[in-house]
Design a protein that fits this description.
This protein is mainly α and about 120 residues long. The protein has four helices and no strands.
Length: about 120
């Protein structure tokens, strides 16, 4: 029996693949940013803005791929993808930072941007 992702439950395997795609894209873009930082000596504000743009781009394309596959309620699937992307990012940051994470405005701004980027990607798909 083939499962139809448009009518059956949550396809966890596909969501994990989409999330992995988003993280690979993020890693490639961060590597390009690191190279540009090394070669051009970019300022702190520029690097911070570029990192946020990279997060949004990663979640946008993850939401796009997920929405394309799911077919209906694409914006919700994209929102789910962006939210899970951020949650994994936050958990990894907690683990690497030994629990020292600040819940300031940048934390919630990044959360909103990741969720919004995924939702936008799902809507566009």
């Amino acid at each position: 029996m083939d499962q139809n992702p448009k009518t059956d439950g949550i396809p966890v395997g596909f969501l994990v693949k989409s999330l992995l795609f988003s993280y690979i894209l993020t890693a490639v873009l961060l590597a390009v940013l690191a190279f540009l930082l090394y070669k051009l000596g970019l300022g702190e504000k520029t690097v911070s803005a570029a990192i946020i743009a990279i997060y949004v781009a990663g979640t946008f394309f993850g939401g796009f791929v997920t929405g394309k596959r799911m077919g209906n309620r694409r914006f919700l699937w994209g929102l789910l993808m962006g939210t899970v992307y951020f949650l994994v990012l936050a958990v990894v940051s907690l683990a690497v930072g030994k629990g020292n994470i600040q819940m300031g405005t940048s934390f919630f701004t990044t959360m909103a941007l990741c969720a919004g980027g995924g939702m936008l990607g799902g809507m566009v798909s």
